[in-house]
């Protein structure tokens, strides 16, 4: 039976699940006999640990790597760079610096995602372990920055000032450092407490599961609650709320596509591509709509006095 914190089912049934790279190295280090099928040969192995369907490493048996997701990530990088540029131009907008930081973190997460689940690097290699750990840390910091944007929007402290930016960046650095360290520990076994799953085949790490799955979901939910209160309760407006709702729906759909549709697409295309490109596309769309939501409540047509109270 799968327990809280076990990754075995995810690493088997969800193609291109990045955090499995850490457990692949752990299994190599502790119980290499567990690796079977496509996972047995690290030089060609897909992302995952004994996956039921996975894209072989680039160049293996004619594999083009996770080509669909690579293309979508590349387009998303340019799109996000455009959002950063547009956000930076709105000099007087509330929370401009904080939103820009959120967009920069999302921008940084995209190439890390490409390298960690793009089937470009050899499984078990130091490079893929390091990039995956950094990717995990960036994702944890990203969702702290999302929640912090909601807190800044309440104007408890003035946005763009040291009283806002210092906690913002300290929190992001703390989540990044803690999650990155745990990622390295899971893969390399720096400590016995965090670095080894018991039993090995369970691929168990409660801290990694909490920081990469539970924490992002909780942060996104809390952010939506805060923005509902600000838009509906403080600004007494409805139109901007639709942007936030749409962004939340797109984010949920991206997760459903990743965890439920990805395997179906992988099987249907004979492991040429999987559904991760759909998830990335929906995630990037959610970020874009989130920018529109922020833009809509910082326009001069809204009652800014109410917003600052």
From TrEMBL:
Coiled-coil residue windows: none
- Which InterPro entries does UniProt cross-reference here? Chs7 (IPR022057)
Keyword DNA damage carried by entry: no
Under the GO molecular function aspect, what terms does this record hold? unfolded protein binding
Source species, domain of life: Eukaryota
Pfam families under this entry?
Answer: Chs7
Instruction: Tell me one GO biological process term.
Output: protein folding
Q: Which UniProt keywords apply?
A: Membrane, Transmembrane, Transmembrane helix
Gene Ontology terms, cellular component aspect?
endoplasmic reticulum membrane
Residues that span the membrane, as ranges = 67-87, 99-121, 127-153, 165-188, 208-235, 242-261, 273-294
PANTHER family associated with the record: CHITIN SYNTHASE EXPORT CHAPERONE (PTHR35329)
Protein name (Swiss-Prot/TrEMBL): Chitin synthase III catalytic subunit
Q: Which organism is it from?
A: Schizophyllum amplum
The organism that produces this protein has a lineage beginning with: Eukaryota, Fungi, Dikarya, Basidiomycota, Agaricomycotina
């Amino acid at each position: 039976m799968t327990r809280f914190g076990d990754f075995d089912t995810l690493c088997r049934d969800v193609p291109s699940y990045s955090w499995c790279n850490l457990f692949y190295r752990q299994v190599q280090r502790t119980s290499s006999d567990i690796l079977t099928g496509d996972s047995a040969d690290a030089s060609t192995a897909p992302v995952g640990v004994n996956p039921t369907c996975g894209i072989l490493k680039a160049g293996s048996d004619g594999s083009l790597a996770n080509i669909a997701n690579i293309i979508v990530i590349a387009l998303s990088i340019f799109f996000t760079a455009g959002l950063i540029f547009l956000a930076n131009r709105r000099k007087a907008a509330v929370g401009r610096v904080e939103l820009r930081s959120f967009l920069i973190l999302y921008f940084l997460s995209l190439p890390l995602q490409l390298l960690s689940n793009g089937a470009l690097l050899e499984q078990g290699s130091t490079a893929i372990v390091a990039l995956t750990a950094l990717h995990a840390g960036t994702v944890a910091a990203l969702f702290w920055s999302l929640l912090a944007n909601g807190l800044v929007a309440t104007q408890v402290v003035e946005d763009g000032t040291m009283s806002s930016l210092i906690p913002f960046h300290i929190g992001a650095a703390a989540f990044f450092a803690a999650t990155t360290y745990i990622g390295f520990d899971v893969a390399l076994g720096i400590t016995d407490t965090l670095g080894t799953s018991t039993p090995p085949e369970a691929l168990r790490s409660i801290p990694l599961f909490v920081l990469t799955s539970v924490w992002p979901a909780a942060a996104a939910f809390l952010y939506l609650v805060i923005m509902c209160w600000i838009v509906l309760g403080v600004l007494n407006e409805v139109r901007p709320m639709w942007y936030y709702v749409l962004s939340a729906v797109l984010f949920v759909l991206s997760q459903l596509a990743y965890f439920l549709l990805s395997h179906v697409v992988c099987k249907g295309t004979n492991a040429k591509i999987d559904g991760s490109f759909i998830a990335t596309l929906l995630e990037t769309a959610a970020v874009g709509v989130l920018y529109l939501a922020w833009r809509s409540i910082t326009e001069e047509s809204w009652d800014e006095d109410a917003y600052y109270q």
